[in-house]
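The instructor's notes for this session suggest beginning with a concrete chain rather than abstract definitions. Hand out the sequence below and ask the class to guess, before any prediction is shown, which regions might be ordered.
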Amino acid sequence: MAADTPFAALLERMIGFINAKLTAEQRQKLASAMPQIQWDFPDAETKLCLAATAAELSVSEPLDTPPFLVRMARTTLEDAAFGRRSLGAAFLAGKIHVRGMNPLRLREFIMLVDPLLESYREASSECSNGPSSAVS
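After discussion, reveal the predicted structure:
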């Protein structure tokens, strides 16, 4: 899937960084629990579907009816990634909406949070320092 906006490109790069951080066992657990996680950022008009297999995490086309959906503002992700607010606090404040999560699989999703935030910071830094630094 080719990114159609700078923010989508940043998210795709983030997925690449996450993929490199997770072990094969972690990817397998995530793939078993949630083979597809759709991220929706309404304020940025961006949807990204993370496809998880034991071999890799990749980006696939957004789904009409995703089995697992995380919806939040781009600023919520950025605030968490750069330490201005935790994702837990944002969730409790109603800034993050999750649909389709099986409570028994929460552990696999939580395992993704730290690598996701670290990878977002890395991708953001890379995109802002690269040739097309306008990430909008």
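Then share the key points. DSSP finds five helices and five strands in the chain. The two ends are 19 Å apart (CA to CA).
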